[in-house]
Amino acid sequence: MHMSLLAFPFAAAFVSAGHYRDIPRKIKESIQGPPRGWLRSDPAPPDRLLELKIALTQPHFPILEKHLWALSNPKHERYGAYLSKEETEALMAPHPGTLEVVDEWLSSYGIEEEYLYRSSAQDWVTIRVPVALAEKMLDTKYHIYTHSDSGESIVRTTSYSLPENLHEHVELIQPTTMFTRLRPFRSTLHWSTSVSSRSTSPSTGTITGPAGNPVDASCNITITIDCLRQIYNAVGYNTSATNGNQIAIASYLEEYANNQDLQQFFQLENPMAYGSNYTFVSINGGLNNQSYAAAGIEANLDTQFAFGLTYPTPATFYSTGGRPPYIPEVQLPENGNEPYAKWLDYVLSQEYLPQTISTSFADDEQTVPYSYAKRVCCGFAALGARGVSLVFGSGDGGVAGTKSHNESDPGQCFSNDATNKTMFIPTFPSACPYVTSVGGTNYIPETAALFSTGGFSNYFSRPDYQNKTVTKYLETLAPGTMMAFPDVAAQAFNFSIVYQGQQHNTYGTSCASPAFASFVSMLNDARISAGRPPLGFLNQWLYETGYAALNDITVGNNPGCGTEGFNATIGWDPVTGLGTPNFEKLLELAMAA
Ligand SMILES: *[C@@H]1O[C@H](CO)[C@@H](O)[C@H](O)[C@H]1NC(C)=O
Ligand SMILES: *[C@@H]1O[C@H](CO)[C@@H](O)[C@H](O)[C@H]1NC(C)=O
Ligand SMILES: *[C@@H]1O[C@H](CO)[C@@H](O)[C@H](O)[C@H]1NC(C)=O
Ligand SMILES: *[C@@H]1O[C@H](CO)[C@@H](O)[C@H](O)[C@H]1NC(C)=O
Ligand SMILES: *[C@@H]1O[C@H](CO)[C@@H](O)[C@H](O)[C@H]1NC(C)=O
Ligand SMILES: *[C@@H]1O[C@H](CO)[C@@H](O)[C@H](O)[C@H]1NC(C)=O
Ligand SMILES: *[C@@H]1O[C@H](CO)[C@@H](O)[C@H](O)[C@H]1NC(C)=O
Ligand SMILES: *[C@@H]1O[C@H](CO)[C@@H](O)[C@H](O)[C@H]1NC(C)=O
Ligand SMILES: *[C@@H]1O[C@H](CO)[C@@H](O)[C@H](O)[C@H]1NC(C)=O
User: For 424-434, what is each residue's pLDDT tens digit?
Assistant: First the structure.
């Protein structure tokens, strides 16, 4: 997002809407009320600026999706022939007629081209308008809503309308009905203050890892970079600094990766990487506060493990703003928490992209409006079509979603709608069929981590690539037809990181995501060095052949919502997916694909 986007002047809120006054309005989206935890207070100040993002209909998405299925299917002749930025954008673009109708509507309020920001594919239009004007345009009333636990305040509404003739051209407009609270899985509740140290570890000698090779006994207590390479059978694999392969971490909110901590971590866990650096990319005003006090646990964990494991692969850290810094006298942020769309807007506009990207942020699926989840999911598909492997942590609340396991009391597992029915809580983006979702394990031999979120989407139906595998699990349970997750898993307990100059242990699928992504990046490294395209969207390969190179996790379960959750079992399960990496075997299969 260009910060130069002009705010449309307040006075213009009183211009006539021209002939649009005569076209009947129809409700575009509405929700019963704010999700649990949000309380409505005063009407929003009329002159408060809102940055409205308008998603235009993408008539060619089904074609884009067909390309994705072909390009990421090893059995297809077009496997790996990824689309360019231009080709992808052409398939994301709205119909010219759509642009015309929407421009005309905006223009009827005096909002001309100079006040518009358009995404690279022209599929999003962003305007900055005062609440008073947004209320006229959307025939609604905005209020201030406050979150009871966090005290966070946002400007939202529970329903909005558009002229009838716009409905087929506009997919959604936000911020309106979206109350999601995107957050890193690693909350302070997971924080172990005990300082870990390998040297004081009581365990010496070796034990046998899942691949049958020796692993330091200390790895059954504390996970380091060496441990992950040993456990997942990648000791001695060297990546290239210059073959064009890259890895990236996507971070949101005020999560800063502290460079001093990173260097200290490198000294401890990968001295070869000491002194190396990564590229920092700010999106939508994302900041990079290098004060020790501002270090983020999530950002430190992600950069330390992903960059440490894959060094010397060139690395990027995306910092996407979206919840502006708290300014006491201005308590209402101008934007909502919808940074995925902003992040996608940026990355999809780039000519060259990192081949592997890990994200450890998410929310409960039901708090993300279906229209927004679907649209963002389509953006992930577009990245897949361009050859990017997207990896997300599955969540840390067991079957109770993103809540930390400690908070997952049975009282929380209800649907947000009028039915208030008891249910497990799937997470987004893990439940999007175009990303790879990573659950968590612990110990050696590996067992499912009890916080590992998994289950079934209530939004997305099951993609074909899951049918064979997932049905096997469902045969013994009630059969369903929805997208299942996670896809895979990795160690997720007692990761030894450096935070504000001290060694700490941390846990969560936040650990598993950068860990799994690092091995994917190494596979991409090998393929690129051999002159082959990267793996791109991984799931078709994983479910069809790759699973044979994963360690099947068959012990453990993911309790939550007052239940024992699901059981890990032979084959795919909604706790650990298809299993954890055996890099040497994966490499063999990846080179044969
Ligand atoms: C985590 O570390 C604690 C001690 O710091 C140890 O008791 C526990 O077994 C470890 N858990 C795992 C899963 O490694
Ligand atoms: C990887 O690099 C290390 C250090 O430079 C070297 O000792 C080792 O032989 C390399 N391994 C392979 C498989 O090339
Ligand atoms: C590493 O990169 C960050 C972000 O671009 C920058 O702030 C920092 O100064 C760099 N550190 C070194 C040692 O070059
Ligand atoms: C950076 O973070 C520190 C600690 O939270 C804070 O005191 C400082 O004001 C921040 N700096 C900027 C430029 O935001
Ligand atoms: C749960 O919370 C309690 C109290 O804050 C804490 O002592 C305990 O370690 C937490 N358990 C886990 C698994 O995080
Ligand atoms: C939903 O149902 C539960 C259990 O019956 C009840 O405790 C809770 O208050 C209900 N929530 C709402 C918003 O009605
Ligand atoms: C790893 O630790 C777990 C939990 O303490 C234990 O059950 C298991 O036997 C240990 N593994 C090995 C190989 O010693
Ligand atoms: C896969 O399963 C889904 C849900 O049951 C179904 O809609 C779809 O047609 C199935 N696909 C194939 C290829 O069987
Ligand atoms: C999970 O395993 C436990 C213990 O073996 C068993 O009692 C339970 O019925 C299983 N749950 C499901 C849903 O299969």
Answer: 999 999 999 99
484 touches 548 (CB < 8 A): no
**If one looks up domain 184-592 in CATH, what number appears?**
3.40.50.200
Which of these, 364, 360, 436, 359, lies nearest to 398 by C-alpha position? 364
pLDDT value at residue 198: 47
Ligand number with the minimum distance to the CA of 478: 9
Ligand 1 close to Cβ of residue 461 (< 6 A): no
User: Helix (H) and strand (E) counts for the chain?
Assistant: 13, 28
Q: Which residues of 498-532 are buried (b: 16+ CB within 10 A; e: fewer)?
A: bbeeebbbbbbbbbbbbbbbbbbbbbbbbbbeeee
> What is the reported pLDDT for 330?
40
Crossing angle between the packed helical segments 339-348 and 370-385, to the nearest 10 degrees:
20
Distances (CA, A) of 348 to 345, 502, 524, 589: 6, 37, 20, 29
Residue 311 CA, ligand 2 centroid: distance in Å: 13
CA of 352 to the centre of ligand 2 (A): 29
Residue that is written with structure tokens 């994983």 in the block: 542
What's this model's pTM, rounded to 2 decimal places? 0.92
For 139, left (φ over 0), alpha (ψ -120 to 50), or beta?
left
Ranges for all domains in the chain classified under CATH 3.40.50.200: 184-592
Q: Which residues of the chain have pLDDT under 50?
A: 1-3, 13-14, 186-190, 193, 196-200, 324-335, 405, 408, 410-411
> Which residue in the list 51, 302, 365, 446 is annotated as catalytic?
302
Which residues are within 8 A (CB) of 374 and not within 5 positions of it... i.e. 6 or more apart? 459, 460
pLDDT of residue 153: 84
CA distance 105 to 107: 5
pLDDT digits (tens, 9 = 90+) for 397-419: 899 888 754 554 544 788 877 78
Task: Indicate whether residue 277 lines ligand 3 (CB < 6 A).
Answer: yes
Give how far Cα 97 sits from Cα of 92, 100, 106, Å. Answer: 15, 5, 14
Structure tokens at 365: 């699926």
pLDDT of residue 327: 33
Residue 302: active-site member: yes
